Amino acid sequence: MLSLNISRAYHHGFILTGIPGMPDKNTWTCLAFSLGFLYSLTLLGNGTILAVVKVDQSLHEPMYYFLCILALTDVSLSMSTLPSMLSVFWFNVPNIAFDACVTQMFFIHVFGLVDSGVLVSMAFDRFVSIQDPLHYTSIFTHHIIGRIGISVLTRAVCVVFPVPILIKRLPFCHANVLSHSLYCLHQDMMQLACASTRVNSLYGLIVVILTLGIDAFLILFSYMLILKTVLGIASRAERLKALNTCLSHICAVLLFYIPFIGATMIHRFGKHLSPVIHMLMANIYLLLPPVLNPIVYSMKNKQIRRRIFQVFQGRKNRAW
C-alpha cells in the first residue's frame, strides 16, 4: 500500500528538455517557426494527396487507397507530437502532466505501428499488382482494403494498450526531466522510475521484435517475390515499368525504417553521445517521413503529379 501511495504521489508530470544547450531566444524562435513549417508542410502534402485521390476517379484503385491510409496515419502521428511541440517552443511551457504524457506516448507508438503495418500492406499490394494484374482489383476490393486497415489499427492498439498500464504501476521519485525534446516515449519515461523496469523493457523488446521486426521481414520477403516475378518478364521495358511502380513504396519504407533503426541504435549504444544527437535522431524519425512521403509519391507517380499540376493550373487560369 505504501509503494502504491508513493507511485501516485510522484505521478505529477514531466519536463520536456527542448533543445539542450540552446538558450538563445532567437534560436528558439527560429526552431519554432521551422518546426511549425514542417507540421504545415505535413498537413498540406498529405491533405493534397487525400484530396487528389478523392477527386480523380482514375485514382480510385487499391494502390491509392493504401496511400490515403498512409497519409492519414502520417497526419495522425504528426498531430500526436504537435501539442507538446507548441507547448515547448511557442508557449515556453515545458511541463506536461503525467496523464497527458502517457496519452501522447500511447498515440505515438500506436500510429508508429500502424505506419509499419500499412507499409507491409502496400508491399503485398505491389506484389499482387505485378504477379496477377488481371485479378488485382478483384483481390483488393473496398471491403478487403477496409478490413486490412482495421486489422492494422487493431493490432497496434492491442499491442500498445498494456504499455500505459505498465508505466502507471511504476513509482517516479527521481528527476522528472525527459531526454526527448518534444514528446513522451515509453523508454524515456521508464528510465525515470525508481523501481525495476525489467518487465517494461522486456515487453518493449518483444513488441519491437514481433511487430516492426516481422513487418520488416515481410516487406523484404515481398520484394524478393516481386524481384523473382519481374525477372521472369521477358520484355526489358516491362520489367523496368513493373519496378518503377515500386520506387515510391521503397522510398517510403527507407524513410520509415532507416531513421527508426538509427534512433534505436543511438538510444541503445550511444549514451555517451551529445543529447543534441539523440534529440535530432528522435525528431527525424517522427517528423521526416510524414513530410517527405507526399513529396516522394508526388514526384514518382505520374498520375498524382499530373492531377496536382491540373489543380494548380486550373486555379491559375481562374485567377487570370
From TrEMBL:
Membrane topology qualifier: Multi-pass membrane protein
Gene Ontology CC entries for this record: plasma membrane
GO process terms (BP): cellular response to lipid
Keyword Cell membrane: yes
Pfam families: 7tm_4
TM region(s), chain numbering: 31-52, 64-86, 106-124, 144-167, 202-226, 247-270, 276-297
Alphabetical list of SUPFAM superfamilies matching this protein: Family A G protein-coupled receptor-like
Full protein name: Olfactory receptor
Organism listed in the record: Dipodomys ordii
Lineage summary: Eukaryota, Metazoa, Chordata, Craniata, Vertebrata
Gene this chain is encoded by: LOC105983908
